[in-house]
Amino acid sequence: MNSRIKQKIKKGSRTVSSRRWLERQLNDPYVKAAKDHGFRSRAAYKLLEIDEKFKIFKNKTSVLDLGGAPGGWSQVAVKKNSKIKNHKVIAVDIQDMEPIYGVNFIKGNILDNDIVENIQVVLDGKVDIVLSDMAPSASGHRTTDQTRAILLAEMALNIAVYFLNDKGNFCCKLIRGKGEEELVKNMRKHFKIIKRFKPASSRKDSSEIFLIGLNFIHQDLA
Predict the structure, then answer these.
(1) What are the angstrom distances between the C-alpha of 57 and each of 5, 80, 149, 205, 206?
(2) Residues 178, 179, 184: CA angle, nearest 5 degrees
(3) What range does the domain containing 99 cover?
(4) Torsions phi, psi of 115, nearest 5?
(5) What's the half-sphere exposure (Cβ side, CA atoms, 13 Å) at 42?
(6) pLDDT tens, 199-222?
(7) Spatial contact of 45 and 201, defined as CB atoms under 8 Å apart
(8) 195 is catalytic
(9) 38, 64, 112, 138: CA torsion to nearest 10
(10) Structure pTM?
(11) CB 65 within 8 Å of CB 76
(12) Is 134's pLDDT higher than 70?
């Protein structure tokens, strides 16, 4: 780390936790790589690793990105589909997101009752991939945060089941703990293959993993 930056960190009025966060950011190779390659977040490398291992983008033309802001995953989705004619990427987030060429953005809360209708209006059909890198705002209480993360993963799965084309793929972030096995059990009803994966770009001290569902099995509920 640049010595002058270190001195600024030490001399500043930041809290201990904020100093640790900043030092970690400055020393994180994925943060640097994201800046060098024009990705909005280091999370882009998690999705790149997931795709390298599971080929979730192969022969797929449309993507729904839940929790898309600041846009790292949407950027990867656009890049993966850039050579495919009529490709489509839709991002949804409760926060604002700066425009990305090739991405339709919907601002909304995934927990709101009208979010499905809003997605339907923009999507006008089904999608081949549903992604979710959603995470709850940290409360500082591990059990509360993990419970909220499970709820978001369950909501993402429900949306995937509603919008996915037959043989579509699903990927969502999950904080390990209570409710994980029940979620996986539910996924097995809808996908031929279920995988759990922690990318190398996930921080070592993080309890996050990613659940990947491959080859969606469409069920006619009528």
Answers:
(1) 40, 7, 25, 28, 26
(2) 130
(3) 41-216
(4) -65, -35
(5) 15
(6) 999 988 889 999 999 999 987 654
(7) yes
(8) no
(9) -40
(10) 0.86
(11) no
(12) yes
The predicted pLDDT at position 102 comes to 93
Write down the catalytic residue from 46, 173, 185, 204: 173
Collapsing DSSP to helix, strand or coil, 10 comes out as helix
d(CA 8, CA 21): 14
Clarify whether residues 33 and 45 are in a common domain: no
Question: Residues 72-110: pLDDT tens digits?
Answer: 999 999 999 877 777 899 999 999 999 999 999 999 999
Residue 20 pLDDT > 90? no
> What pLDDT score was predicted for residue 140?
80
State whether 106 and 179 are in the same domain.
yes
- What is the Cα gyration radius of the chain? 18
Whether 24 and 96 map to the same domain: the answer is: no
